[in-house]
Amino acid sequence: MDHYLAFLGGLVALVFFADQFVKGSSAIAKIYKIPPVIIGVVLLGFGTSLPESLVSITAARTGDLDIGVGNIIGSNVANLGLVMACAVMLTKIAIPRSIISKEGVLTFGSTIALTIVLINEWVSRLEGVLLLLGGALVLLYILRNSSDIEVNDDNEEEYRASMEVVRVIGGLGGTVLGAFFTVRGADGLAQSWGITGGFVGFLLIAIGTSLPELVTTASCARRGETDLIIGNLFGSNIFNCLLVGGLMGVVGPGKISDPNLTGKGVFFMLLITLTLLALGVNKKPIGKSGGVLLFVLYLLAATLLGINSSI
After folding, report:
1. Which of 255, 234, 269 is nearest to 127 (CA)?
2. Element at 255 (helix H, strand E)
3. Per-residue b/e over 72-99, b at no fewer than 16 CB within 10 Å?
4. What is the DSSP letter of 244?
5. Per-residue model confidence as pLDDT tens digits over 288-308
6. Is 5's pLDDT higher than 60?
7. Pseudo-torsion of CA 304, 83, 167, 140, nearest 10°?
8. What is the pLDDT of residues 171-200, one digit of tens each?
9. How far apart are CA 193 and CA 197, in angstroms?
C-alpha cells in the first residue's frame, strides 16, 4: 500500500507543481516582455518536460536507470501517439511545411541521437555530455530564429513579480519532491508486481508525466491554436531526448538491464515519430483517421513491451 501511495501521490505532486512552475515562469516572462514565441518554445517545451526531467534524473541518481530510460521513451511515444491522437479527435491539425522542415527535422534528429546512445544498452557520461551539447545548440538555434519577433503588449495582464517568483520556486521544489516519491513508488510497484522497472517507466510514469502536455494540448485544441500544439509536442520530445537524456547520462551513467527498452521501445519511438512526420507531409490536415493510427501504434507499443516485462 505504501508503494501505491508514494507513486500516486508523487504523480499528483508532479502534475500540480509543474503546472505552477510553468504558470509562474510565463508570468515572469510577460513582466519582462520576453517574446511570446520564446515563451512558447522554452516554457511549453521545457516546462511540460520538467516532470520527465526530474523523474529520469532522480531514477538515474538512485540506480534505477531503467525507470529513467523507460520514462523518456514512453513519454516520447505518448506525446506523439496518445496526446496527438487526442488532439486530432478535438480538431483537425495541418502541420505547416515550415514546422516540418525545422522542428520536425530537429525532433527526428534528436530521436536518432538518443537511439544511438541507447542501442548498445549502456549510457555513458560522455554520451550524456554530447546529448546536452546537442540540446544547447538546438535551443540556441530556436532562440536565434525567434529573436526578431516583436513582443505583443495587447491585453497584457499585470502580475506581481515577487509572488510569481515564489510560485516558480515552490513549483520547482514540489516537482522535485514529487519526482522522488514517484520513482520510489514505481520501484516498489515493479518489485511487488514482478515486472521490470523499464515497463513501469514506459507505461505508468510516462502517462503521468505526459499529463502536462495533454492538458496544454487540449487547451490549445479548444482555442484552435494548432501550431502551438505541434510546437509543444515536438519541443517536448526534443528536450526529452537531448536535455533529459543528457542529464540522466551525466548524473547516473550505467547499463540498461531491460532489453525491451533498447529494442521494441526504441523501435516504436522512431516509428511513431516517422508516422507523424509522414502524416504531416500530406497536404491534407491530420484528422480522426490519422489519430486512430497513432493511437493504435501507441497501444501496440504498450502491449508488446508489456508481454515480455516480467522479471
Report:
1. 255
2. strand 254-255
3. bbbbbbbbbbbbbbbbbebbbbbbeeeb
4. I
5. 999 999 999 999 999 998 886
6. yes
7. 90
8. 878 877 887 787 778 778 777 878 887 888
9. 10
